[in-house]
Amino acid sequence: xxxxxxxxxxxxxxxxxxxxxxxxxxxxxxxxxxxxxxxxxxxxxxxxxxxxxxxxxxxxxxxxxxxxxxxxxxxxxxxxxxxxxxxxxxxxxxxxxxxxxxxxxxxxxxxxxxxxxxxxxxxxxxxxxxxxxxxxxxxxxxxxxxxxxxxxxxxxxxxxxxxxxxxxxxxxxxxxxxxxxxxxxxxxxxxxxxxxxxxxxxxxxxxxxxxxxxxxxxxxxxxxxxxxxxxxxxxxxxxxxxxxxxxxxxxxxxxxxxxxxxxxxxxxxxxxxxxxxxxxxxxxxxxxxxxxxxxxxxxxxxxxxxxxxxxxxxxxxxxxxxxxxxxxxxxxxxxxxxxxxxxxxxxxxxxxxxxxxxxxxxxxxxxxxxxxxxxxxxxxxxxxxxxxxxxxxxxxxxxxxxxxxxxxxxxxxxxxxxxxxxxxxxxxxxxxxxxxxxxx
Length: 440
Prior knowledge:
- The structure is a single chain.
- The protein is of the alpha/beta class.
- It is 41% helix and 15% strand.
- The strands form 2 sheets. The protein has a 7-stranded parallel β-sheet with strand order 3-2-1-4-5-6-7, sandwiched between helices. Strands 10-9-8-11-12-13 form a 6-stranded parallel β-sheet, with helices on both faces.
- Helix 7 packs antiparallel against helix 8 and helix 10 (264-284) packs across helix 15 (377-388).
- The protein is globular and about 65 Å long.
């Protein structure tokens, strides 16, 4: 694979001799490795599965310097790779051009002449006629707006426009104005792309239903595929051969939150929980602790470590010991779109999960049987007392069974291959939606 890439390098490496698989252009806003956060988990498994059916030409960005050493892992699944560095601070400044051009700010945020040139040259050189775009901002790199492709599929993942609308409701002016504008511009972009592409996919039926309402003219082309969980990895018996000790203080009753801690919805969730919920819980149960596990903790998260009973770990090598030895996992999301992988992973580890309604969207789990719904501080007080008393002891195994039933990558990804390869294919969910619409 050549020398290890650095932050200023572009990677473009042909790795195998031409095979019988058709070439596929795969555009992704963030390098799909390592699969250590929600969007990268989904994009990696999508890449891995599609590589079994297509020769993949991947164009993507690296926005975290710690991800550059993983480039060779990505190259294993591709015929050629172009990775471009993305500096978040410079990209944020560049995104302001959108205020003048009328575009969604995410379009100039990702604008990159080097990637655009590589895509155009690669498509022409290899006669690529199939493309998958992961996130709406990456569609700008399709040559001539995607004309000439036989099949184009876009994985929107979430309805991003709605997420920005939620942000606007939480922020003061002028940020609230900027976020509402972004929500409007992104919705217009999402609607236009749904019309241009052969199929548009989301992370859950709830996301697809929302977009059906926002873009009824394209409902027949909109579907979803659930995220999966590697249940062989997220297995409560993962350390059966070499028992790993608990990372928590002896005698404590640990609550855990996991996630990327520079992501604002996660920051908002833990700050609210730490300040509005946890003090009363700890007063009632002095042995309780709250551990926030995840990389790049924002300053607001770091400050929480000064509060009694709260620990902030930063990035950890293995999240599973924190999940396995937790009394319960909390996911008090107040802003959310799509599916929370943190909830699925905790369920796979057979832990009781106290989750908000927003945090549970897209996960078909029964309240009281497989998860515990908690939105208000009083919900947490009541449910946690029940967990400590052993009332919900069977819930962990039921939660794991729920994930095993419904969240398998092997079961969920074949439709994407069909949509890319069959010129007459439309998402099954889009067909079902049309039938429901005709019957109402």
